[in-house]
Q: What sequence folds into this?
């Protein structure tokens, strides 16, 4: 990252600029004073670089590591809480007015994706690795230099740089969330399959599964369609019919098998079995016994 000259700390909690403001602070030579919980009526992006800091946002507490950043919506109480280690405290702070947020969101929700995610999910701390941290803070340093300059076309250049930075940050966040979501959905899918296999004789309705796994019915239906290419209902039906078939071939009475495998009545079981295997349960058993005898095997 480019070396950056720290700014004098601004104590005000209001914006002078009606769109956005950017600050870089580095505290090394003075003892850090306790900061009171405070709120403001604008969005804040806080990019952490160094320090022994736990950051409190609303009712959440985040022990920060270099490369972490916070997205704090308006109206939420927040503050840094300093630990006992005497290290430097460095961070970038970017403020957005609500009017500016509304303006860029109308232009494209892609630009406010991270701010919206933090607000909607009540998750405010996100992380970057070492290389991404260097790249992102380098861009913030360039933005701060341009922001403080008097060069021609400065205002337009600053806006373009800021929007580009936000889009890059949002893309990183989206990729991280998407990767985690994929892993989570794979685990959820496997767990639901295991649960179904172990509880074929019980209620396996979408309502029951959604309540047991604390997810929506739509979410379960979606991941089953994606992974199996068939609906959850079709999957459960096939698993129950397969279990019935094996039970019948092992010699269990046909009229008992259907209830043991979760069918509510014999008629629905009979129809489903005949549709799946092209024969009634008794016909299927006789056919299997005959085929076994033709091969010289023993069929139960």
A:
């Amino acid at each position: 990252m480019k070396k950056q000259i720290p700014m004098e700390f601004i104590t005000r909690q209001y914006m002078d600029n009606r769109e956005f403001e950017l600050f870089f602070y580095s505290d090394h030579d003075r003892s850090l004073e306790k900061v009171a919980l405070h709120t403001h009526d604008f969005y804040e992006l806080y990019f952490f670089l160094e320090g022994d800091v736990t950051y409190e946002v609303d009712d959440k507490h985040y022990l920060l590591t270099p490369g972490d950043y916070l997205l704090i919506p308006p109206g939420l109480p927040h503050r840094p809480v300093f630990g006992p280690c005497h290290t430097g405290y460095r961070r970038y702070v970017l403020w957005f007015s609500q009017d500016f947020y509304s303006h860029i969101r109308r232009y494209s929700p892609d630009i406010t994706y991270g701010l919206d995610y933090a607000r909607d999910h009540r998750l405010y701390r996100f992380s970057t690795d070492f290389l991404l941290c260097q790249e992102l803070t380098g861009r913030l340093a360039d933005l701060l230099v341009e922001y403080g300059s008097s060069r021609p076309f400065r205002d337009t250049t600053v806006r373009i740089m800021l929007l580009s930075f936000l889009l890059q940050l949002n893309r990183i966040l989206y990729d991280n969330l998407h990767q985690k979501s994929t892993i989570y959905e794979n685990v959820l899918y496997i767990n639901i399959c295991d649960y179904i296999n172990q509880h074929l004789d019980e209620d396996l309705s979408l309502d029951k599964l959604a309540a047991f796994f604390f997810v929506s019915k739509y979410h379960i239906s979606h991941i089953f369609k994606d992974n199996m290419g068939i609906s959850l209902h079709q999957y459960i039906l096939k698993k129950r019919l397969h279990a019935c078939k094996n039970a019948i071939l092992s010699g269990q009475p046909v009229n008992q098998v259907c209830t043991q495998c979760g069918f509510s009545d014999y008629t629905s079981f009979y129809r489903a079995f005949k549709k799946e295997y092209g024969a009634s349960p008794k016909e299927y058993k006789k056919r299997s016994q005959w085929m076994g005898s033709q091969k010289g095997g023993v069929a139960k």
